[in-house]
Structures are given as C-alpha cells and as structure tokens.
Automatic annotation (TrEMBL):
Protein name: Beta-galactosidase
EC number of this enzyme: 3.2.1.23
Lineage: Eukaryota, Metazoa, Porifera, Hexactinellida, Hexasterophora
SUPFAM superfamilies (alphabetical): (Trans)glycosidases, Galactose-binding domain-like
Signal peptide from the UniProt entry: 1-22
Length: 647
C-alpha cells in the first residue's frame, strides 16, 4: 500500500500529469463550431482522439436489465460523481426479442431511455452489442428459441443462426444509430461478439458479423471493438484484423506490463484498453461468496492508468438476476447456476448503496486526475419492515395445474418446443403395468436439464439432476395403469463455454430444458405437458387451500400480506430461512423477484426494490416452494430487513 501511494504521487508530479491535464481540459471543452463530433482510436499514438484531441476513458459497467428503471438516473449520477467518463452495458438480445420477430423495449428493457439518461448525466456510452454477451445471463444473452432449430450452431457462421442475428441487428442498430457520438449522441464505441477468442477462431463468422454492423452503421460513424483475454493467442482468435480496435480484460493482481506486451504483439499501435477490470466476482449456488479487496483494485488500476490505459470496471454498479434470467457455468463438468444476486462485490451494491470500495475508487480517480469531484448523491436508507407470516396456498399439481398451458404430445421434448423459455415444465403419462410375473420393477432411461422430481402415482421416486440416467421403480401389480409425473426446473442456461475444436459443436447448442431424452421398458404413446413459465403471474388468482396432499411435499405456494409501511416504497431485503423454506421463487405482487435456495446458499436474502410496492393498496409476497412444503403455518415466516445476507 505504501508503495502504491508513493507511485501515485510520483505519477502526479511528472509524466501522468501532462496526460491528466490534457484529458480534463479536453473533457470540458465543447465541440468547435462547424466541426462534427468525432471519436476514433489513434493507432499512431496509442490513444483515442475525441474531437481531434487525445483522450482515454475510465468507465464502469451497469447492466440496465439488472436494475429497475426508476433507479437508473441516480446510479448514473453516482457513477459520474465517482469520476467516470463513460458507462458500459451489454445489450441483451434475449430480453429484447422474447419470441422470433416480437420485440420488447419497455420498462427495464428500455435501452434508449437508458442511453438518454446517461447523456443527460454527462456520461459517454459504450455498448457491447454481442449478439453473444456472456454476462452470467441465460444462454449468454442469446434467445433460447434459437434452440428449436435442429443442428443450429450458435456463435458460428451457421446460416440459420446468422439469419436471426441479421434480423436482430437490423432492429437494434437502427434504433441506436441516432445516439452515436458522431451524430451528437453519447455512444462512442460498439462491441461485436464477446471474448470470442476463448470460444472459437472462426474468422468468417466474425467478418460476416462486422459486415452486418457496417451495412447498417457506416464504419466512419462509430468505433467497433472486440474484447478478449489478455494473451496474444486469444486476441488472434477473437478479433478480426488489427485495423479494428482490440481490447483485453483482466482482474486484480495481473501483471499489467505483460498484458500490454501481449496486446502490442497483436497490434503495435493500438490504444490499451482493459474492457473488464473485475471489481468482484459472481457467486454460484452452493459456492463460497466472492469478494475482491479494494487495495488490490487500486494498485492494479494505478498500473493500468500509468500504462496510459483506458479502463472499464466490471461491474461498477451491481444488480439482480430478476426472474429466471441467471445463466450457469460448468465447473469442470459440473453444471453450476449463478445465484439471483448480481451484487458482484461492486462499488455500488446490488441495492444501490455506495460502498467503501466506491469511495476509495472515487478518491483515487480524483487524486490521479487532479480534479475535484461533486459529492455523490445517495438513495434512501433501506428499511426493516419485520417478520411476515405466510399462509399455505395449495399445491400446484392439485390446485393450479389447470390454469396453466397444457399440450398433448406423443414423446416428451424440451420446453423450447412448447414456446416456453423459462420456468418449470411438467411431463405426465400413464403406462400399463404389463408383465408382473417375470419382473416386478421397471426402468426408464432419461436425461433432463436441469433438476426435477420423478413421481409414480404421486409418490416421489427420486430427485433428478443433469447426471441422472436410469430410474427404476416397483410396478404396482394390483392396478393396471400407473401415472408417471416428471417436473423439471430450468435453472438457467450455460452462458460461457468453449467450443469443440473437433466439430465446432458447443454446450450452448444443447442447452434445451426439460426432458432431453427418454426411453422406457413399457410402451408409452401419449404425454400431457404443462408449462409453468410464470410469465404472467397473478398473485390474486391464488386461493387458500386446506388440501395438503399426503406425501407430496413439493411445489406449493405460500402467500402473505406485507405491512402497510411497505407503502413508503423503501427498499428492503427479504430473508428466507431453511427450514421452513428450501428452494423456489419469490414474487412481490406480480413481479418475479428471482430464485431462493437457502438450503444451498450462499445467498440467504433477496433484494426488494421499493418501487415494487404499491402505495395505496395491500402488498403481497408469494413464495413458490419446490422442495419442502410443510403443513404448519405457525413457523412459515420471512423477515424483511434493512441489510442483505449474501453469505
Ligand atoms: C503515455 O503517453 C504519453 C503521452 O503520449 C507518453 O509520453 C508516455 O510515454 C506514455 N507512457 C506509456 C507508459 O506508454
Ligand atoms: C410456437 O409459436 C409458433 C409461432 O411463433 C407457432 O407457430 C407454434 O405453433 C407454437 N408452438 C406451440 C407448441 O404452441
Ligand atoms: C420385463 O418383462 C418384459 C416381458 O417379459 C420384458 O420385455 C422386459 O424387458 C422386462 N424388463 C426388465 C427390466 O427386465
Ligand atoms: C441410458 O442412458 C445412458 C445415458 O444417456 C446411456 O449411456 C445408456 O446406454 C442408456 N441405456 C439404455 C438401455 O438405453
Ligand atoms: C440403465 O439401464 C439399462 C437397462 O435398462 C442398463 O443397460 C444400463 O447399463 C443402465 N445404465 C446405468 C448408467 O445405470
Ligand atoms: C397398489 O395400488 C393399490 C390400489 O391403488 C393400492 O391400494 C396399493 O397400496 C398399491 N401398492 C403399492 C405397493 O403401492
């Protein structure tokens, strides 16, 4: 730490000062009358040229989809007050095109509103269009309905994939075109693909992609760039030519000079940009809660800036994987979904609080640039509303199945083929008990993604996961027909995976959810499928039910009225403990807040943005519990507190 401080002050008094001054002067300068605004990388001087003057940026990532829009302006102002020049975000294709040709740009999907707010606050904008974005987001941001096309190859020049990419780019790029810096807007750069070098080296795919971009937005209008890991080989595989800007990413403790050398080896005159400088790290269910120390961030940041780097904090503002939007990773071959919180140990927390890390980074930037920053605006305090008792509201099989969409098919296929993208799916069939003399058991051989419950005549036979294959159970020879029910949860599609170099295939192409493969000893000719996508959840359609199916202790609802004080719309955290609860989804009124799984951890509470509460009518909290439905209502409470528990 002592070394770092010494280094900063040395830097301030000599070499860097020159740069800092020119930057701060440049930032305040308005465009000269008559000359168009311009932003380009300068491959001779390893800087950017903004309106003809040397420029580099300190920026931070804030994903609009992960924060409700009522909070966007405040967070952007907090980023500005930390001394940032720009905000970066991915653009999430799957939330904008939920069905092929059907588009959504409302609420927290209103990216144009986000861009306008950033400009009002005085931040430049860097958009990472993808179409693949990773981001710990379902299928890395690609729509899951792509998987209904047999043999589709995502992130490749495959014609089916590319035709949907083409359509999507023809929707998103014209929308943002008027907001480019060269047109008087805040957007200085657009990223194509994302860390493609870690996936494949298909240059035809990359050049087709860039061609699509340039056919819609002329190359002179905006700087296109790629981001890859900090090595020559990844850069070479993941970026197109060295006439386009290639940037790298790395976290704390990295040897910055080595990274710069790798970049120079690839593109000698390129400006050095770390597009993902990790302030924290995401968590998986069942894993340790991740943190990254502030001292490490400051010392690596110092080294990046001293190397004349531009930088982007990933993340600067945390957020939430609301609903079912979390992705998953493979730990070795182990499927590991990300938790609901995307706090990320960020400078601005999931709930919008300014952390010590925020203040330390802000102070560092003010010193480094020798500028005085405005005081950051702060949001309202979080509130402890106290304990809420929930009532049992019935079992989904018994009380609610009929109000969801039902299909009849000959063989079980994944949810995507029923136009279902997220949530739970139930497969039901009957089979004839058959030969009870020579064998008293029967076996079905199946694969599911990701987790499920297998019932025969309402009795739980086993809990399934992605590794399950055979399920063997007793036949009941005193009856002729037996009922099989298989309920499967989609826990989030893998968002990051290598491509096989052998045949170009990747896990992405096989992230269908539900039953993936099924065979049985007995003849089965018909299935009934129920889609529980909770797309339009209506808490007021739930009804108290006294019926408690014997032995069926999964998939039920609990609901409670929240205290009147929630009408103040102050943020809070709902703490859900195991027992009595185990795993499921929480709704506030009709909003799907996300998954809870206290039995697994590390996350034990969920952030509730106060704007979800109604001001003049009763507020409801509903739990859909999938693992541990208990009869007693005396101890089914949740606790609304002013602090989170992320483990
Ligand atoms: C940073 O840029 C300045 C101005 O162009 C230059 O004099 C200096 O050598 C550069 N420093 C490094 C480490 O590249
Ligand atoms: C899925 O949606 C398409 C239209 O996008 C429709 O043609 C098809 O019938 C739907 N499939 C099912 C199973 O509802
Ligand atoms: C059960 O018996 C039937 C009829 O004899 C036979 O076709 C089937 O393969 C047997 N199943 C097993 C698991 O042994
Ligand atoms: C059961 O499934 C596994 C894994 O998919 C497979 O290896 C095995 O051959 C299957 N058994 C039968 C009888 O199909
Ligand atoms: C599954 O059952 C089949 C017989 O039905 C058997 O051949 C196969 O080895 C079993 N697989 C596993 C993984 O137990
Ligand atoms: C078989 O089914 C009969 C009739 O439903 C039931 O009474 C009996 O308990 C069942 N036996 C087993 C072993 O599940």
């Amino acid at each position: 730490m002592v070394n770092t401080i010494l280094f900063i002050s040395l830097c301030l008094s000599f070499a860097c000062h020159h740069v800092v001054n020119s930057l701060s002067v440049e930032l305040d300068q308005t465009t000269l009358a008559g000359s168009d605004p311009s932003f380009v990388p300068d491959f001779n001087n390893r800087y950017f040229l903004k309106d003809g003057k040397p420029f580099r940026y300190i920026s931070g990532i804030f994903h609009y989809t992960r924060v409700l829009p009522q909070y966007w302006a405040l967070r952007l102002r907090q980023m500005k007050a930390a001394g940032l020049d720009a905000v970066q975000t991915y653009v999430f294709w799957n939330i904008h095109e939920p069905r092929p040709g059907v588009y959504d740009f409302d609420g927290n999907h209103n990216i144009i509103h986000f861009i306008k707010l950033a400009q009002q606050v005085g931040l430049l904008v860097i958009l990472r269009i993808g179409p693949y974005v990773c981001a710990e987001w379902d299928l890395g941001g690609m729509p899951s309905w792509l998987l209904t096309h047999k043999d589709i190859m995502l992130r490749s020049k495959d014609t089916v994939y590319m035709s949907y990419v083409y359509n999507w780019l023809h929707v998103i790029l014209p929308k943002i075109h008027p907001f480019l810096y060269s047109k008087g807007g805040p957007i200085i750069m657009l990223q194509y693909e994302n860390e493609y070098g870690s996936f494949g080296g298909d240059k035809t795919y990359l050049s087709n992609l860039v061609e699509y971009f340039n056919n819609i937005i002329p190359a002179k209008d905006v700087t296109l760039f790629s981001t890859d890991g900090n090595s020559y080989s990844l850069l070479k595989r993941g970026s197109l030519t060295n006439s386009l800007l290639a940037t790298i990413d790395f976290g704390i403790g990295t040897n910055v000079q080595n990274s710069v050398n790798e970049l120079r080896k690839y593109s000698y005159g390129t400006p050095f940009v770390n597009s993902e400088f990790y302030t924290g790290w995401p968590d998986v269910w069942g894993g340790e809660h991740q943190k990254r120390p502030t001292e490490g961030i400051l010392s690596t940041l110092n080294a990046i800036l001293d190397a004349n780097g531009s930088v982007c904090f990933y993340m600067f503002s945390g957020g939430t994987n609301f609903g079912f939007m979390n992705g998953a990773m493979l730990k070795g071959s182990e499927y590991s979904p990300w938790i609901t919180s995307y706090d990320y140990d960020s400078p601005i927390s999931e709930g919008g609080d300014l952390t010590e890390k925020y203040y330390a980074i802000r102070k560092f930037i003010a010193n480094y640039r020798n500028v005085i920053l405005p005081n950051p605006p702060v949001g309202d305090d979080k509130v402890t509303y106290g304990k809420v008792t929930l009532q049992y509201y019935g079992n989904i099989f018994h009380d609610y199945k009929d109000s969801f969409k039902i299909y009849t098919v000959k063989t079980p296929v994944p949810m995507e083929f029923f136009n279902q993208s997220y949530g739970y799916i139930l497969y039901e069939t009957v089979f004839e008990t058959g030969d009870c003399k020579s064998n008293l058991t029967t076996t079905v051989n199946l694969s599911i993604q990701d987790r499920g419950h297998f019932y025969v005549n309402s009795e739980l036979i086993t809990i399934l996961d992605r590794k399950s294959t055979n399920v063997t159970f007793h036949k009941n020879c005193s009856i002729t027909m037996q009922v099989i029910q298989i309920m499967v949860e989609n826990m989030g599609r893998i968002n990051y995976q290598h491509r096989s170099v052998v045949n170009g295939d990747s896990t992405f192409n096989h992230e269908h959810k539900g039953i993936i493969q099924f065979q049985s000893d007995e003849l089965i000719t018909s299935w009934m499928i129920t889609s529980f996508d909770f797309h339009h959840f209506m808490h007021d359609t739930l009804k108290r039910s006294e019926f408690y199916p014997e032995g069926r202790t999964q998939y039920c609802f609990y609901q409670g009225e929240l205290p009147k004080e929630t009408g103040t719309q102050k943020d809070t955290y709902v703490h859900i403990t195991s027992p009595p609860f185990s795993k499921g989804v929480v709704f506030i009124n009709n909003f799907n807040l996300g998954r809870f799984w206290p039995a697994k951890g590390p996350q034990k509470s969920l952030y509730i943005p106060g704007v979800l509460f109604k001001t003049h009518s009763t507020n409801y909290i509903t739990l859909f519990e999938t693992d541990n439905c208990i009869k007693s209502t005396t101890d089914t409470t949740v606790d609304l507190r002013d602090v989170p528990d992320l483990g």
